Amino acid sequence: MIFIWAFIIGGLFCALGQIILDNTKLTPGHVTSLFTVLGAILGFLGIYDKLVKLAGGGATTIISNFGYMLYKGAYEGFLKKGILGFFTGLFTYGGAAIVSAVVFAAVLTLFFKPKD
Questions:
Q1: How many CB atoms lie within 10 A of CB 98?
Q2: In terms of C-beta density within 10 A (0-12 exposed, 13-18 middle, 19 or more buried), how is residue 44 classed?
Q3: Dist CA 63 CA 36 (whole Å)
Q4: Residue 91, Cβ neighbours under 10 Å: how many?
Q5: Residues whose CB falls within 8 Å of the CB of residue 29, separated by 6 or more in sequence, listed in order
Q6: DSSP letter string over 51-116?
Q7: What is the per-residue pLDDT for 116?
Q8: Count of Cβ atoms closer than 10 Å to residue 110 Cβ
Q9: What is the C-alpha separation between 33 and 31, in angstroms, rounded?
Q10: Axis-axis angle for helices 28-44, 47-55 (nearest 10)
Q11: In whole angstroms, what is the distance from residue 66 CA to residue 36 CA?
């Protein structure tokens, strides 16, 4: 059943992004930022935890999960170390995503050349 929920939740996020792109003048970069902030807001409201439990990979493989991870790390850091922990905890969970994106991008540049 989790596969069905993953498909539904992930599909709804993707459909929402496509609707925004088709009906506004926002660029894909704007929508990416919007979804990252949306993930952090949903995490703050306690909704994203429920989405992850319900849909698993359908909620954790999309860009809104990055915002949720930033929020989660910052919140846990704040609880442990106060305001300094807020800043140091930001990349507790999101750091792996950032490092892997940079490493994969660097490796792919060895094999592919940009078009002129």
A1: 12
A2: middle
A3: 6
A4: 17
A5: none
A6: HHHHHTHHHHSSTHHHHHHHHHHHHHHHHHHTHHHHHHHTHHHHHHHHHHHHHHHHHHHHH-----
A7: 62
A8: 7
A9: 5
A10: 100
A11: 6
* Residue whose token pair is 């060895």: 110
Inter-residue contact 66 to 43 (CB < 8 Å): no
The C-alpha atoms of residue 26 and residue 75 are separated, in whole angstroms, by 30
| Closest to 64 measured CA to CA, from 20, 110, 107 | 20
Alpha-carbon separation of residue 8 from 14, 37, 50 (angstroms): 10, 21, 14
DSSP assignment letter at 12 = H
Residue owning tokens 């990416």: 32
Determine the pLDDT at residue 38: 95
Is residue 45 within 8 Å of residue 68, measured between CB atoms? no
Mean pLDDT value across the chain:
91
pTM over 0.70: yes
